[in-house]
Write a structure and sequence with these properties.
The chain has 370 residues and is α/β, with parallel strands linked by helices. Helix content is 45%, strand content 15%. The protein folds into two domains: 2-193 and 349-369, Rossmann fold; 209-347, Rossmann fold, CATH 3.40.50.2000. Strands 3-2-1-4-5-8-9 form a seven-stranded parallel beta sheet, with helices on both faces. Helix 1 crosses helix 15 (350-369), helix 4 packs across helix 5 and helix 9 crosses helix 13 (316-328). The relative contact order is 0.12.
Length: 370
């Protein structure tokens, strides 16, 4: 098949494209590299500036580029906002893709209208980025997402594309649960693709456990790393001979990766039911993840054996307790490391995931043709 993957988050589309190429398909990945992260792509859709000259120049580039985005068997957009443009300006580009290609699919991989709506209803999830039980979480990031996605033009765009596209692919349980009440007929769950690392499980019980936490200053409260950091700081202060805290903030990716690689345990995403890309990459290197590992995560994967993730509830006491238990039972770390690698190989291997996409696309295309 000839496949266009348009837009990218956390290297999902590039990794998927690599798997599809290994399976013999002709793939083009076009994106802005996920902003400052600079992920690889075949066609660069970076926007140079937000001024009127930069905007005009970007539209001219798109006008020259989009004729090349014709004749694909499958187009998958990463999100309703698949171009670095205001939502009001994106739908004509979607319609162009729709007219000049085969099936068009939309990814449910991150922030969008349905995810915000599900979190805000206080029923779909016990907790999320938007709710703690019946209580809504309120912070600066949430207010921005609610304004843009639930009540703004991004939400309008999201609903129009969801109604029109041939299929929607959810990469995590949370996104699947958000779309299921509204688009069950065209919704599929496929895990995120993770490339092989060749890493081996932890071979021995460490004398001192290295806990790694990465801080995004602007989104620390939204993702819960502020709470996880407080719990980790308490444990590190109380048990300095048994553990070491590695905290990184605003460092180059190569430095970040090196520090994570030399650690044993990663703390990630307090309000998640599931491990997302950062945690999955850590698990592919045999790291133990403290974060989202709720029963729903294992159920949607049909996983009845492996339990590599140290699940925590969204409060400091739960994280503090889990970290102390890891130290008390650090002889279990090699087994958890082995399970992390087995979990990735079983559910997230990029070739297996790529084949699931091919099966979905081919099946949906045949339904459309009938």
């Amino acid at each position: 098949m000839r496949i266009l993957l348009l837009g990218d988050y956390s290297n999902v589309h590039w990794t998927l494209g690599e798997g599809l190429r290994r399976l013999g398909h002709d793939v083009t990945v076009a994106s802005d590299g996920d902003g400052w992260k600079g992920y690889p792509r075949d066609v660069d859709l970076r926007r140079r500036s937000l001024g009127w000259r930069g905007t005009l120049g970007f539209f001219l580039r798109l006008a020259r580029q989009f004729p090349a985005f014709r004749g694909y068997d499958v187009v998958q957009i990463i999100n309703p906002v698949f171009l670095p443009l205001r939502a009001e300006r994106i739908f004509p580009f979607y319609r162009y893709l729709r007219r000049h290609n085969g099936a068009v699919f939309m990814g449910a991989f991150g922030m969008d209208y349905y995810w915000v709506r599900a979190g805000m209803d206080c029923r779909t999830f016990r907790y999320s980025d938007f709710n703690l039980g019946p209580r809504l979480r309120r912070d600066k990031d949430n207010e921005e997402f609610i304004r843009d996605w639930l009540n703004g033009p991004k939400g309008v765009l999201n609903r129009r594309i969801a109604d029109d596209c041939d299929g929607i692919v959810a990469g995590l349980y949370e996104y699947y649960a958000s779309y299921a009440p509204h688009h069950a007929d065209k919704l599929a769950f496929i895990p995120f693709p993770i490339p092989p690392t060749g890493c081996q499980p932890l071979a021995h019980v460490p004398d001192r456990v290295r806990f790694f936490i990465g801080i995004q200053r602007r989104r620390s409260a939204y993702k819960g790393t502020d709470i996880m950091l407080r719990a980790l700081e308490r444990v590190a202060a109380e048990r300095p001979a048994e553990c070491e805290m590695v905290k990184v903030e605003s460092v180059p990716f190569a430095v970040y990766a090196d520090l994570m690689d030399s650690s044993h345990v990663l703390l990630d995403q307090l309000y998640s039911y599931t491990p997302a890309m950062n945690a999955l990459h850590a698990m592919s290197k045999g790291k133990v993840v403290v974060g989202g590992g709720e029963p729903e995560n294992y159920a949607i994967l049909h996983e009845d054996e492996l339990r590599p993730i140290v699940n925590v509830l969204p409060d400091e006491a739960s994280v503090y307790r889990a970290l102390n238990q890891l130290l008390d039972r650090r002889d279990e770390l090699p087994e958890l490391s082995r399970q992390s690698l087995a979990y990735i190989a079983r559910h997230h291997d990029y070739l297996k995931v790529a084949q699931q996409y091919v099966d979905l696309w081919q099946g949906r295309k045949s339904q459309v043709l009938r």
